[in-house]
Amino acid sequence: MTEVQAEPAAEALRAPRVETKSLLSPYRDVLIALTVFAILAALPALSSSKALLDFVIRCAAMGLFATSLNLLVGYTGMISFGHGMFFGLGAYGFGLIMQRTGMPVPLAFAATLATTAVVATIIGSICVRLKEIYFAFVTLAFQMLIHSTILSWSSFTGGDQGLRGGIPRPVFLGIDLSNHVHLYIVSSALLVIGLLAMRQIAQSPFGYTLRMIRDNAMRARFIGIDVWRAKLTIFVLAALFACTGGMVMALFVSGAYPEFAYWTISGEGIFINMLGGVTTFLGPIVGTVLLLLLNDTVTRLTEYYGIVLGIVILFFAIGLKKGLMDFVVEWVAQRRGGAGGRG
Amino acid sequence: MDLDALAGCFVSPACLVTQTTSGLIIGMLLFLVAVGLTLIFGVLKVVNFTHGAFYMFGAYFAMTTYQFTGSFALAMLCGAAGTAILGIIFERVFMSRVYGSDVLMQLLVCYAFVLIFDDVVRMIWGPEFRSMGMPTAFQVAPLFIAGGVVPPYYLLLIGVALAAAIVLGVGLTRTRIGKVVRAAAHNPGMVSALGINTGLIYGGVFALGGMLAGLAGALAAPVRSLTPGMGFSVLIESFIVTVIGGMGSILGALIGALLIGLIRSFGSLGFPLFTEGLMYLFMVIVLVSRPAGLFGKEVA
Amino acid sequence: MTRTRRPGISRRTTLALMGTGAVTFATPWVARAQAKTIKIGMPTILSGRVAQLGTSSRNAVMLEADKVNAAGGLAGRQIEMVIRDSKGQPQEAARVARELVNTDGCELLIDAEASSGAFAVHEVARDLGVFCIHTNSETSALTADPKQHIPNAFRTARVGVHDSIVGGSYAAAIAKTKGLKKWATCSPDYAYGRDTTGEFTLYLKRFAPDVEIISESWPKLFQPDYTEVVTKILQAKPQALYSCLWGGDLTSYIDQANIYAMFGQMEVFAVNMADYTALTVVKNLPKGIHSGNRYIKTFPATPENAAWGDAYKAKYNEYPTNWSWENATAIMLLAEASKKADSADGKKIADVMRGLTIKCPFGADGTVTMRAEDQTLIGYAIGWGTTIAQEPYVPDVHAGDWKTILELEAEWKKSKGYA
Predict the structure, then answer these.
(1) Does a structural domain hold residue B163?
(2) What's the pTM value of the predicted model, to 2 decimals?
(3) Which among A35, A205, C37, C286 would be 20 to 30 A from C87, CA to CA?
(4) Residue C14: inside a domain, yes or no?
(5) ipTM score of the complex?
(6) Residues C91, A154: C-beta atoms closer than 8 Å
(7) pLDDT tens digit string along C212-228?
(8) Chain A 237-296, CB below 8 Å of chain C: which residues?
(9) For residue B54, what are the domain limits?
(10) Is the CB of B94 less than 8 angstroms away from the CB of A318?
């Protein structure tokens, strides 16, 4: 029998490096973060729309997830098809801890992060040495294995019906998470802090090490960088932020469902990155807003959501060939480039 | 977990034979669906995520043809031919645009079409599930072969699967066309420089892969209910089989499929509630020890 | 030097698109004015594998809502249904339910979600306090479990344990007459499948203690290939088989079991067989499959039921499904409750609905009751019979007796710690 040779189907992302570091310093980042948070926190006072707050909470959950995925995909060139497993673990971990123990919320939060870190370290140490598409396949396999386990272990996880009965929310530090506005403020805070933290990681020397690994791992090795350890570190860090997104989602729906650990969540993360663009830091957030808006609008108008989403994806993949933020940044750069057009 | 049942089966010859036979049947059915996927990857370096959609179209074309003509042969023909044509159009108009891009772009284009195709089928044939029904010619009693029960219809399916494996295997190695195709897989620039139309080759291979999926769908139609989105579970299974066997390897797809079939067959005895999980566990083990799959070629 | 035209959309077009987009996308956040209609929100599944659940629910609701509106509406307010697709994802179900109430101004919810979606919407009902009727989820725990009790949520779907009590006693009678001691089960591996099978087995063994379950199979929901399941069952050589596979899965299973000649070797009890969706689709239906009634227009054998089934078929050109009657009943209850309360306010309707009995074509004795203690429907027609391949499909239905059902259900609740 013949073997038709298979070359890796993924090349390293040929993404143009968009250098914005010269514009911002860490102090500026904090200032921007505080301003954004202030605006978000003021929203409940300015608008009586509960739907708007719901929207921001969902953006927080998916935004944290998608941006953490970008740390892997855009900055390190590690294409993970299974990142959703940490989103699911976060939701289930937090839900289970709150339902079964009387732990205060911040402690449960920390415990969930810790557990996810351990799982991510174990899975990561097995996966990160693999290249490109093989890494993608193994992460997907692990995610499906976790999903299968969640479904089968129904005495512990509730099986396909998910964690039922709601998530208890004891008051902590005067914050009552069953109050919609409190939940909103906490989600916004988590979003802003999470983005700030990820930004610092991306702009730090470690972040540049990651970019170097993305562009040429061999060269990185030659100058003495422990590529495996760097990849494992970012894998675990990304898992933590995905986990946080999962916890926000669990609070929003007051439960955890196996769908949170299904590959479709990973797929949504990838779409969001493609929609928003992987070359800018805020691309995934833009993508999150886009996808959620699209989802909400289309399901309001028609039940043929699939065909609409499909056409939108084609528009970005074949038409624009890049994400929205990438497009915007290039457009801005062209304007700055002055007259003369693109040769 | 029911390890007693599993152990009991290993010591009972009748059980062993029946379970092995059913494992082989499942495996061959899986192989028929998966072989197109591995072929397309091997030659075009593209993971065809629309594979399940071709399977779905093959089934629907076959069912509709059978409804109007009552002829099984015609139904199979239409299923295969329809998806072959669809494959050529899809490849030339859309896939060819993303050959150079990274795998995520290809995945997105394919996934977009899965969504579109599912809704198109829903609009044309409706959301309810449909059934083609077994043609009277095959409504016969099952055969007993070596202690195992084998329905004659499945013998047909196994025959077609084996034929596909042999034709592809021999075709790619022994014939001139096969050599050209393999050369185009290795070095398309060179092949094109020699005056051979690589576009035609790519279109042809994609059409062949799609046709195999469509044929599998058409053949499965008499025994499975049809519903928009039916391609999805089949896609996941094909994916697992080809990844375990090694993307691009026909022998790998065959062995992978048979292994999965046996795991399902014996796994449902010993682990009735975790049979699917067993499959993923196996996939993890294989990928961790041999990332390129059992028969794949790892590239440095 | 000539400027080469840049590929892609022009700046002006982009800005125009963004402007239109902003307006379209922002509209939901602008509050809507209150109208003389009453909006009832309905999250359901209109796409994907289970789309038929949503479409048949929607059909039934619209059929009944039109009748109510023609008769003056709910306490003088015309019903406006707002039906939205959750694609079968529980987080979407939660989001859609919240959106229907918070943005679209729906005052009542008809929750036509399946299992996990229903639990998700239940949490929204708990959080927002909005009136809600679950119409499709059959999981007993949704109303039986005291932890799930909230005063504003009701259920008009059939309850798994009721079905199992009737099914178990019917099957036990046949097991005794025909000497069926060795049984196998084959059900989809998810909560509905496991719970229903477990409950059926419980009552089967209670009425026929000689019965032994010698083999259990748990294929995955929507699994395309049942080969290993069929061969496993054939090897176990049971005298009878129970299955709660439904819809396309049931049809696939029948097709695949047929070519293994399985049906000639054992009695088959498939609770979901007698549903028009399966009966009209499967091509080579084996004789003599025992089934519970999902929706059959000849059971109850009343002119009201037949008329309702015919009206549905005339309007939608397809037969009603089990989901259809459950949703229709919800609207019927709503109409009657709002008449009694002379109001369309959710809380007032809820107060009246507890314990309410109404005339209903699907009732075992012409009426159904919304039981006050756990706010779920009782008194609906349950029966089992043997299927044939043409109309009336189930010529002879043995009806379940509600007195027995209620007694055994109370016992069951105690055993689960629910009572």
Answers:
(1) yes
(2) 0.86
(3) C37
(4) no
(5) 0.88
(6) no
(7) 999 999 998 888 889 88
(8) 249, 252-255, 257-260, 293, 296
(9) 18-128+151-228
(10) yes
